[in-house]
Amino acid sequence: MFDCIILGGGPAGLAASVYLARLNRRVVLVDEGKSRASLIPRSYNHPAFPDGVAGQALLDRMHDQASRYGVEHVVARGDRLEPIDDGFRCTAAGRTFQGRAIICATGLVDVLPPWPDATELVRKGNLRLCPICDGYEINGAPVVVIGHSRRAMKEAAFLLSFTDDVTVATLGAELEGVSSADIKSPVRLSTARLAHHRPAPEDRIALEFMDGVAMEAVAVYSALGCRPRSLLARSLGAKLDEEGRILTDQHQRTNIQRFYAIGDVVTGLNQMGVAMAQGEIAAVTAHNDLAEAFGEP
Q1: Residue range(s) in the chain whose domain bears CATH number 3.50.50.60
Q2: Higher pLDDT residue, 102 or 296?
Q3: Omega prior to 186 cis, within 30 of 0
């Protein structure tokens, strides 16, 4: 019986594991190694890394830190969760674990353009996902936001903080819930289908549209939405918001006793620093809740 099972080994889950282990809790981290953070080519807005840090390098350092404190790491995806007396049972890759508490840090999956190389373009920095993270690096360059919803229009408007050359490209999809008032000047709208795309120097992409318009080197953001990985939480009865993110209180508690949620599966501000802070909060909350529930000193 572990004190806590942590589902997900991104910045949130790893931060929680370190804190719990340093509180002398027995912890198992169940993670299949597909953290969204691993795709970050280099982050320049993460505190204490003025020269930037690659997402995978940061994860490797956090894994090393967790292992030094005895956190057990199981490379697998959690397949099933169920309540048991005084805790939970988790099944992952044919193995079964029992824990008195669960911290869910399962993250989310970004919806990318339907390109065979889309994930690799994200990994190399050509296809961008977060203007909060790297809008500063655009430095006045032309930008294309791929999307057809109000979300895309809001992202385009946000990018005007970094450049005045912004186009929203629907790639032929119909606009959803967008009015003329949602398209902020000087943002342009392109509804043509895409003919070709290819990576370009300086983390840019060259685009050629079916209407003959060509853009040789633009910063491209995908604003097609995301899918929170909250099915396990849903199966346990956790309350979700309209997007499928897990609802928590300010201490990262869900509506289920000793079941906590942290990181991108919870918050709308998908930043590594936010995820880590939530992991730290959840770890201390779980430690205190366990002590109260089981009469520990």
Answers
A1: 2-109+226-294, 112-222
A2: 102
A3: yes
